Every structure is written in structure tokens, then in C-alpha cells.
């Protein structure tokens, strides 16, 4: 499987082929020699193919160790913050500043039960938005997995949350998942998503950074931490929304050799987690 951009720059465009569109997500196989009998790379990616030697990092030792430290801290922070059920204990450890009055957000999450029209009608009735605004909220929830639909004081947010759950559960339906979150919590989570994206960008062009990334996860596994970092990332998947799940999946795949590494060290205990992980990547989900 190749994305359109890679396919149009590959020799396979001159072969007999069948083109189809996938709506479930996934990854382009350009550059993966195991996926192709010949010519695995397009013209754009061919010059960058190198044999990754994780045993001999070429960066200066101090830079390499600082990179490991940054990656480790970034992943540990994101694991704790990017979660639907952000605990008060975590919030108190991140900041001792009290939330200002009225600084709470009402966050609605995606599900596989309610239609766009149902969500729009509920939003129009509860938060008094226009149908056009309701459509914008529903579209963002469908695309990102969640959206902030309004802000207010804590009591008002809780009242609107109850109204949404009541209206959405009529006729025996499952109620829409809505959380009342402090502004700072959503800010931490958005920062963590940007942090994961930044880590992906620094891993792509530099084999030494990918080596550091793999070593961080390998050391975590070998040290016997239970659950280890990668296990935690995979097991918390049900607690993630769509955009958060995507960022974690892209980061793990940026490590390239991480699958072989992890199965070498931990194949028995985590095989089910890896099956779940690849199911999430290749099958995707259909929601709303």
C-alpha cells in the first residue's frame, strides 16, 4: 500500500495496479522492503534510506544522553496527562495554582451511537448555539475525537453536562460522554499532544535520535518497571480520544525498529497489547 504522493513518484505507477480509498487510517509502506518484492521506495524517499545501526550512536555523548532524558521526560509526562480521566492528584502535582472562578470547560467526546443530527440538536438545546455552530462542534468531535463546546463556572458546566446526558439517553440510547475539566487540564493535554508531534519530527530525520528513543523504551522494559512505559501507552488506548491515539501511534511507529526490539524483550507478556495496537492503526474506527 502506498499513499498517492509516493505512488506517483515510484516505478509502480507504470505497472498494472488497482487504486482504492481507505477511510480507516493506516501508514504508507513506502521504504518498507518487506512489503515489496522490488522497488520499495519512491524517488523522494530513496536517498534517505540508510541502515539503522542502533549500537553505535554518532552524536556526541552528552547530546545523546540529553536526548534520551528529554524523550523519557516527554513520554512520561504525556502518558500521565493524555487521559480522559485526569486525576486531581496529577493536577496538584503539575500545578499548585487554584483554578480561577468560572474557568472550567465542557468537553464532549465522540461515540459510535449518536448521529450528527442528534448531537447538533442536543447542543442547540443545551448550550444555546446555532445549528451552524452545532454542526461545527459535531464535525470537530468526529474528526478529533473530542471538542470543547463551552466554558462557564463549575456549577453551570455540571448542569449542562447533566442536561446533555439526559437528552442523549432518551429512547434507551447510551448517553453522550461529557466531562467538566479545568482549563489548565485541557491546556496540559493540548501541550502534550504538541509535544508528541514535536518528538515525531525530531525522530524522523536522525537515526541517532531514533536510537535514543528505542533505548529509552528498552531500558524501561529491562528495568522491570511494571507496567513498563510501552505497556502503559498501549493499555491506556481505550482512555484516549482519536487525535491523542493518532499522536501516540505515529510516535511509536517513528521508532521503526521498536516492534522487533519489544517482541525480543517482552514477547509473552505484551503480545496481546501489540495485536491491539496494530488493530487500532490499521482498522481505525467509525464513529458518530
From TrEMBL:
Top-tier EC class: transferase
Function (record text): Ubiquitin ligase protein which is a component of the N-end rule pathway. Recognizes and binds to proteins bearing specific N-terminal residues that are destabilizing according to the N-end rule, leading to their ubiquitination and subsequent degradation.
GO molecular function: ubiquitin protein ligase activity; zinc ion binding
PANTHER family attached to this UniProt entry: E3 UBIQUITIN-PROTEIN LIGASE UBR1, UBIQUITIN LIGASE E3 ALPHA-RELATED
Name of the featured protein: E3 ubiquitin-protein ligase
Gene Ontology biological process terms, A to Z: protein ubiquitination; ubiquitin-dependent protein catabolic process via the N-end rule pathway
GO annotations of cellular component type: cytoplasm; ubiquitin ligase complex
Sequence intervals crossing the membrane: none
Gene assigned in the entry: UBR1_5
Domain UBR-type: residue ranges: 1-47
Catalyzed reaction equations: S-ubiquitinyl-[E2 ubiquitin-conjugating enzyme]-L-cysteine + [acceptor protein]-L-lysine = [E2 ubiquitin-conjugating enzyme]-L-cysteine + N(6)-ubiquitinyl-[acceptor protein]-L-lysine
Pathway: Protein modification; protein ubiquitination
